[in-house]
Design brief:
- Chains A, B: Its EC number is 2.1.1.22.
- Chains A, B: One of its GO terms (cellular component) is cytosol.
- Chains A, B: InterPro entries: CARME, SAM-dependent_MTases_sf.
- Chains A, B: Keywords: Methyltransferase, S-adenosyl-L-methionine, Transferase.
- The structure is a homodimer of 394-residue chains.
- Chain A has 394 residues and is α/β, with parallel strands linked by helices.
- Chain A has two domains: 109 residues; 216 residues, Vaccinia Virus protein VP39 (Rossmann fold), CATH 3.40.50.150.
- Chain A has 14 helices and nine strands.
- In chain A, the strands form two sheets. The first copy, chain A, has a seven-stranded mixed beta sheet with strand order 5-2-1-6-7-9-8, with helices on both faces. Chain A has a two-stranded antiparallel sheet with strand order 3-4.
- In chain A, helix 8 links the parallel strand 1 and strand 2.
- Chain A is globular and about 75 Å long.
- The termini of chain A are far apart.
- The interface between A and B is large, with 48 and 47 residues.
- Strand 9 of chain A pairs antiparallel with strand 9 of chain B, so a sheet runs across the interface.
């Protein structure tokens, strides 16, 4: 467990503390990066002292010695610049969250005490950066085409008339940085995104809304600010030391967003809302025409509860589209309940619950992969389209 | 750190302790498996108590209720049997090691006190089982074809006359369970395998030699015992709860060895030796005609030392063939030196050292993958064939 900051006032509640922990993790990135660089330099020194540098370099022509030394200096300098740059982006994200959580944000900053976050939280900061690439850069296009596109196409074939789609309410649980939700809005649907992680919520808020929130989150407010395509750059691969073909691969930047955001277009008949919190809580007493679970169902402690909640939140003939692997998030996590069922048992339960499986297929997709790495994690995802009640689809 | 057993006698040295730790890990497998099953049962109970079982099952026809209950019972029973079976194989491996390390084995068993191994050691037992599949079952054929076959073909095209190959001495560092070394023997070369891990050494000894060691390691000695193709079965996927399509996938067995072992053929002109220990130590003052590093160079604390050692152990025009990714084993391991260079910097150093790169390519390969899992780790491996001294190959 990470240490809690001192309680500043009696009104500091658990949520404020949770927010402060996330903000602390975002804000620590610069220092984390510096630690990483220092470690590399120390290792190089360890290496230098472990051998006789003079005899080592005797093998090289003098030009080469200068090249190696300069190349390393240049590389470290490039790393530093990019770490600072990433840090400034993460700071913007942490600051912009005020537009989303208001008073809690102010309180969190008031009690904030800079400290080293847990390894888990640091790794969440790094994966947030990777998630920006996956969802909002052209680098992530192959991953989005693999699993988001089939969902959108399926829905569009069910609802072919675009002008009527604003009546179709779709829920996207675990929507991450909101790209799938956003692209469904673009197709005309009325969409509610749902997300539990503040790392994702703050970052999606920054990407989706900051153009409307110009006065609050920039240190120097800019009027009429609008996101432009590829306006921002982020460096997601700086610390990918293993499985690297060449140093330059680690330095490359990725621009985002890769398209003009729909939030900059006003007067649409359909609406977009984002709901923070636990999926099982937010679906209570709410109805949707379709629920789209992409890379989501394996976040369940108890998959049966997810199935029940989805069933309850759909009307007769309501649509459930799912895609993703089953990398159970709570497997082997101490103190957490976790039912790691195989796909076939889940489908058995889904059918028994009262869904008809209209179609089922397998889709291969990567997830937040560095395409230049020697390691490429590939998922063989389960995709299905189901209807509540087993009536034939319209 | 795992606890050390009490010192039984003054002659118990570090090596005996190290061996005892590995034997303890092998011997703990059965208990580890039982722990895993108990956890699953507890989780199912937690699940049962968290909902009203009667209303839960009301949704199901009675036949189905019986099916579910029986199916689970049957599954747990199948798991238990297979865990016991794996345990008996691992016990055979631990026992057979006496033929390899003699007195140290006896001492290790004398001081042995059964206890829970570290997580790292338990995970090494599980990966040893996966390694058996990779190297010695037909399940591992695609992985061996991907990276072992190109090496063998390269060598055979350099040394086309099989009857002369016994004069060619090849070193295979980090040879794991010895399959690549074995297959090179089969082609007629004289081969020395080298391995540091006792998990690998004990298991390769069992596979490669136990047919010659029948009197010492079986509890009931069997005379004239010889390994037959597919004689043994092992269950490598029992604990793959995530990314599983159906329960039966976890239960499936893999048979080994997938071929008649060359060690059962006598009177060959070429010889096979296996050398336990640190690669950097064992290559000192030894010469080989070729060194084959497959999935090995990223085990280095200091890759420069590996390059120097390979250079020193080869004659002018000597051959170095390498294949594998760069998943640096000591990255982020506290207290360990680690230089995580990208491939291009390694190649720069190799050329500077005095190798000519004859050919270079990329090879895609998986590594100890469960082919029925939703997760398929794919490596984009670097392959090169180099010659010491930069003379054109013959």
């Amino acid at each position: 467990m990470s240490q809690h900051p001192e309680e500043g006032e009696s009104s500091v509640n658990d949520e404020t503390r949770a927010i402060e922990e996330v903000i602390n993790a975002f804000m620590y990135y610069g220092k984390f990066g510096t630690e990483k660089i220092l470690k590399t330099i120390q290792q190089m020194k360890l290496f230098s002292s472990s051998i006789d540098m003079i005899s080592f370099f005797r093998n090289y022509p003098q030009d080469f010695q200068i090249l190696v030394v300069n190349k390393n200096k240049e590389f470290v300098e490039s790393m530093k610049q990019r770490i600072e740059h990433n840090h400034s982006i993460l700071k913007m994200i942490a600051n912009s969250a005020s537009g989303m959580i208001g008073e809690n944000h102010t309180k969190a900053f008031r009690i904030h005490q800079a400290r080293r976050p847990t390894g888990e939280f640091l790794s969440k900061v790094l994966s947030t950066i990777r998630q920006i690439c996956r969802e909002w850069s052209s680098e992530g296009l192959p991953e989005r085409e693999a699993t988001f596109k089939p969902i959108i196409e399926e829905l569009n074939s069910i609802f072919p008339t675009e002008t009527e789609r604003h009546n179709i309410r779709i829920l996207v649980p675990g929507c991450g940085l909101g790209r799938l939700a956003h692209d469904l809005i673009e197709q005309g649907y009325t969409v509610q995104g749902n997300e539990f992680s503040y790392f994702m919520l703050f970052t999606s808020f920054f990407i989706l809304n900051c153009c409307k929130e110009v006065d609050t989150f920039f240190e120097k407010p800019r009027v009429n600010f609008l996101f432009q395509v590829d306006q921002f750059t982020i460096y997601p691969y700086l610390f990918d030391k293993s499985n690297c073909w060449k140093s330059e691969d680690r330095l490359r930047g990725v621009t985002f967003p890769d398209k003009t955001l729909i939030s900059s277009v006003t007067n649409r008949p359909n609406s977009f809302s984002m709901c923070a919190g636990d999926f099982l809580e937010i679906v209570k007493d709410t109805q949707f025409d379709a629920i789209v679970t992409a890379w989501f169902i394996d976040t369940a402690n108890d998959i049966f509860k997810y199935i029940d909640a989805i069933y309850d939140a759909l009307p007769e003939n309501g649509i459930w589209i799912n895609v993703g692997p089953l990398t159970w998030h709570f497997e082997d996590i101490a103190g957490e309940m976790s039912i790691e069922l195989p796909y076939s048992d889940i489908m058995l339960r889904i059918r028994q619950k009262g869904f008809e499986i209209v179609s089922e297929k397998e889709i291969d997709s990567k997830y937040t992969v560095n395409r230049l790495s020697m390691l490429q994690n590939q998922f063989n995802c389960a995709y299905f389209y189901a209807r509540k009640g087993g009536q034939k689809p319209q």
